[in-house]
Amino acid sequence: MTFRAVGGRKCGFLALLIGRTVAMASDVVLQANELKSKANEYFASGDYTDAIAYYSKAIELHETAVFFANRSFAYLRTEMFGAALEDASKAISLDENYIKGYYRRASANMAMGHYDKALRDFETVVRKYPNSKDARQKYDECFKRQRLRAFAKAIASEEKPSPLENFDPSSICIEPSYAGPHLEQKDDGTYTVTQKFMVELLETFKAQKKLHRRYAVVMVKQFYDILRKLPSLVEIDVPDGAKFTVCGDVHGQFYDLVNIFELNGLPSTENPYVCIIDSFTLTTCPLFR
E-assigned strands of the chain? Predict the structure, then answer.
């Protein structure tokens, strides 16, 4: 087929063909926008499933960053975060200047716990719209979550088994020259703290002498084992007529503690104390009983 002999008609045919193509393309865009509008209506009413369906139909006709970002938002509302992330990334690939694409991708990554990736996209949004309260709030919330995770990870990695868990008292020898109080041993070899021992311990401390390190570590380990098994908050039933003596922190002043005991009696089941202690000193030992 040749248009050599009808040159004017050739240009007319091409113009007609181009015109029809443009018209068809315009019709496709119009249909796609109508589908998007319908999807928006479903989204506004909370029908995210139908909204996704109509956004998908619009995308089949005409792929735009707006359509993918809108469907990403609908996926977010239905907690389909992987699909939301994929659509948001597609929106950015179609138009790297479309900020909503970054916002949707950041939201999807944040929902999945990918805080580092989410922060990068939120930073892009905040740079573009520094006065956006919503963008700033999202950025701050994501940053907070990232810091909390990093803190929790640091705590978890630093927590190691205590040397007390495998402590063997026999590994610390008691010298023949030691003249201080001795913990009593049960038939199974375990040590027990008695009222007699505590009275002797107080007298030892008052005389400026020391408790042997074996017994000190044994007492610390027993205290450690007790605390590890207790919840952070312990509820105690106090019988009618019973009393608790509440002591503030004595700040390491041993003789102040001794004076309290002389005035109010030694700690016991019948004479319990509630003490506030924020440091471990020799004043702590008499309270282990």
Answer: 184-185, 191-192, 245-247, 273-275
